[in-house]
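Attaching the record inline, Q. Sequence:
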Amino acid sequence: MAFMTLPAFLARAKAPAAPQHMQRLDSLDAVRGVAVGLVVYDHLWGGPELAGSAGVILFFFLSGFLIYSTYDPRTYVQRRTFRILPMYWLSIVAAFLLGPWSVQIALQNAFFIASKSNWMSVVYWTLYIEVAFYVLAPLILLSWTVVSVIPALFAIVWLIWGPIVAPFYLSFCFIGLQIGAWRAGRLPEWLLLANIVVCVAASCFMRELGPAFAVVALAAFSAVWTVIRFGLPRVSLLSGLGRISYSVYLLHPLVGAAMLTNFDASVTTLVCLLVSWICYRLVELPFIRLGRVLTWPRVA
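Structure, as predicted:
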């Protein structure tokens, strides 16, 4: 078989088949590619921590937007379960094999009840935020009043009473919901912008965040808002990377832990991309399709 270049390799990561209204926009996949690239740059290449923060914020914005855009209460739980858990559990198995973790800690991580000191990967805290958002989103979507104010209200409340900073990131998931509502014509743009201004301002006063983080959050919002409003030219490399981004996100700390002591960041990154592509094809896609097959009669 002829040698395949990296761009061609990533471009072959095809999105799962779905009805037209469920197809992901290539431009949003490209944003996912940028997001995971920023996180990998932070963790594997020693880039600034704010680069990783920008990538995480982008993921949360997109998560909220896509939940709004695809939400169907008849299939929501099943499809989210098949989308998130199989690859997450596979990464836990890999972390267990690579590190000195007990079965008890592995099970705690698998069911999102591990304490911070027992997280088996540096990125798992974001999965806790994501799952919390999945639980809250159906409740928020019951009321347009709540959708209209929840990001700003949550940011202010957490600024005043929040004991730890991580859940503050939920406000960015809520902004993502609002971006979806705005795109659907159900939320005025000024209200969306007012909410992001409040969230960004609140982050200036959060311990461990500060003004630099606020600037990054505003830049991430501007990028997502611009892409959704105007689109992007098709970029196969970034779109392909975006499609495998969940596997890359979960696996890059494990590949890094196994390889960085003996190999440089470029080799480690290439191996991570290869392993992630394989996992996407063999784990993510089959379970995504299984979730759709199991819920299809309900929406036919």
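The CA atoms of residues 75 and 295 lie 6 Å apart. The chain has 13 helices and no strands.

More tomorrow.
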